[in-house]
Amino acid sequence: MEPARPWEELSKEELQKLYEEQKELYEEIEEEMHFVLKYSNCHLPGNTRAKYEQQLKVIQQRMDHIKELLNNK
Fold first, then answer.
1. Is residue 6 one of the residues assigned to a domain?
2. Of 13, 21, 27, 60, which one is least surrounded by beta carbons within 10 A?
3. Contact present, 36 and 48 (Cβ < 8 Å)
4. How far apart are CA 48 and CA 53, in angstroms?
């Protein structure tokens, strides 16, 4: 298996694909968070929302970085 290349070395097409993958992941986690927090009938730890929000924040930061790289290509 080939080691992952730094994002700065990826082509514009590869970056766009990576951005779309991150966007899909963001949407999936956001949907899961809303479902779990709104429709779950079981008790959840108090930090559940914070964990989801942290995941979303990290993905958003990745997306912002990829967008910046795309704008510089």
1. no
2. 13
3. yes
4. 9
* Chain segment 35-72, per-residue pLDDT in tens: 888 877 677 788 888 999 999 999 999 999 999 999 99
Closest to 49 measured CA to CA, from 63, 65, 40, 36: 36
Q: Could you tell me if 54 and 42 are in contact, meaning their C-beta atoms sit under 8 angstroms apart?
A: no
Reported as a pLDDT band with limits 50, 70 and 90, residue 16 is very high
d(CA 71, CA 65): 10
Give CA–CA dist 12/51, Å, rounded: 32
Number of structural domains in the chain: 1
> Which range marks the domain in which residue 38 is found?
11-71
